[in-house]
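Example for tutorial group B:
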C-alpha cells in the first residue's frame, strides 16, 4: 500500500475544506484526483505531502504516519505544486543541482541524478538555458525533474498541465504515463480529459467529500442507462427561459441546463430518467412553442456527464 487516508479533515476557521475522507492508493497506480475548483483537491495534496497539517484523521505513506514522520515521508514523495516554484534566473542544470542538494541527494550521486532527470524529462536541448527563457511546457518538465530528483516512490502532481497549449499537454501526458510505470502517481486536476488520457482510477471530490471512486470504465458502467440529450434551437426564435421551462415540463426529464450559446443558436444539455426516451416529446414541445429546432440527439453517458452530476448535486458518497 502506498497511500492510506483515514477520516481526513481540514478546517479553515469553521469551514471544512476536506470533510472526513478515506481512501487507499496502491503501489503503481495512476490516480486522478478530480473535482471542481475549491473542492478540496489541493488541500488534500498538501496534507499528503506534509506541507499542511490535518485538523483530524491520519495519513500513511508506505506505512509511515505523516505527522510523526514528516521528514521521512517527504523523502518518499515528489511534489509538483500548481504554482511551479522555479528560479527563473538559474539555468536548468544549476537548478536541478540545487534541488538535489535540498533533497539530500549524496554529492557523489548528484551528477548521475541530474543526467537521469534530463533524459527522462526530455531536457537535453534546454539544459544550459536559463529557466526564464523556457516555454511553459519546458518549465513544467523542469518542475517534474526537480520533483523526482531524489528518486521518490510517490509522485503528487497538482494541475500539471494548467496553462499549457495542446501540444505541450500531449507531451506532458506521455511523460506522466511513462512515470506511472515505475511510481505511484496522484494527479490532481479539474480537467476531464486529463483523467481519461492518463489515469487508471478516478477519485472525485466535491465540497470536501469523496463522491466517487473507481476506474473510468467502472464509473461509466455504474451510470449506464442515464440518458443525456443534446437539443439545439435557433437563438431568438423564442425566449430561452420559456424554452427551459417548456423542456422541464416534458415527461421523463430530470435536469436541463444551457450547455452553449452563441449568436445563432442555444444548445441545451438534458438529463432524462433512466430507460426513458423523451426525444419525440421534446420535438413536439419545441414545435408547439414555435421555436426553430436545429438539432436533437441522444448521447452515451460520458465521464463528463458523471462528473457534472456528482459535483452539482448535494455532496454525498454516490459511487
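The residue assignment follows.
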Amino acid at each position: 500500500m502506498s497511500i492510506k487516508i483515514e477520516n481526513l479533515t481540514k478546517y479553515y476557521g469553521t469551514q471544512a475544506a476536506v470533510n472526513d475522507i478515506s481512501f487507499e492508493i496502491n503501489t503503481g497506480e495512476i490516480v486522478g484526483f478530480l473535482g471542481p475548483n475549491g473542492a478540496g483537491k489541493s488541500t488534500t495534496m498538501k496534507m499528503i505531502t506534509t506541507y499542511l497539517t490535518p485538523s483530524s484523521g491520519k495519513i500513511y505513506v508506505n506505512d509511515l504516519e505523516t505527522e510523526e514522520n514528516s521528514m521521512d515521508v517527504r523523502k518518499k514523495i515528489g511534489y509538483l505544486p500548481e504554482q511551479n516554484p522555479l528560479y527563473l534566473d538559474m539555468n536548468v542544470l544549476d537548478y536541478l543541482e540545487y534541488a538535489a542538494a535540498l533533497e539530500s541527494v549524496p554529492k557523489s550521486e548528484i551528477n548521475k541524478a541530474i543526467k537521469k532527470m534530463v533524459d527522462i524529462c526530455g531536457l537535453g536541448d534546454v539544459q544550459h538555458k536559463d529557466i526564464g527563457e523556457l516555454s511553459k511546457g519546458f518549465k513544467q518538465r523542469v518542475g517534474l525533474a526537480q520533483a523526482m530528483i531524489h528518486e521518490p516512490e510517490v509522485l503528487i502532481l497538482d494541475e500539471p498541465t494548467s496553462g499549457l497549449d495542446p501540444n505541450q499537454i500531449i507531451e506532458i501526458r506521455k511523460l506522466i504515463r511513462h512515470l506511472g510505470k515505475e511510481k505511484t502517481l496522484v494527479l490532481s486536476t479539474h480537467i476531464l480529459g486529463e483523467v481519461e488520457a492518463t489515469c487508471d482510477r478516478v477519485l472525485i471530490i466535491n465540497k470536501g467529500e469523496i463522491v466517487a471512486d473507481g476506474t473510468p470504465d467502472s464509473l461509466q458502467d455504474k451510470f449506464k442507462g442515464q440518458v443525456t440529450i443534446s437539443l439545439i434551437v435557433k437563438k431568438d426564435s423564442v425566449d430561452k427561459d420559456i424554452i427551459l421551462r417548456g423542456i422541464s415540463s416534458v415527461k421523463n426529464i430530470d435536469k436541463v441546463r444551457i450547455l452553449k450559446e452563441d449568436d445563432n443558436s442555444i444548445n441545451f444539455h438534458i438529463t432524462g430518467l433512466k430507460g426513458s426516451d423523451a426525444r419525440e416529446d421534446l420535438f413536439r414541445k419545441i414545435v408547439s412553442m414555435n421555436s426553430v429546432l436545429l438539432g436533437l440527439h441522444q448521447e452515451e453517458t460520458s465521464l463528463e456527464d458523471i462528473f457534472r452530476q456528482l459535483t452539482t448535486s448535494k455532496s454525498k458518497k454516490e459511487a
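Confidence is low (pLDDT under 50) at residues 315-319. Compare this with the pattern of hydrophobic and polar residues in the output above.
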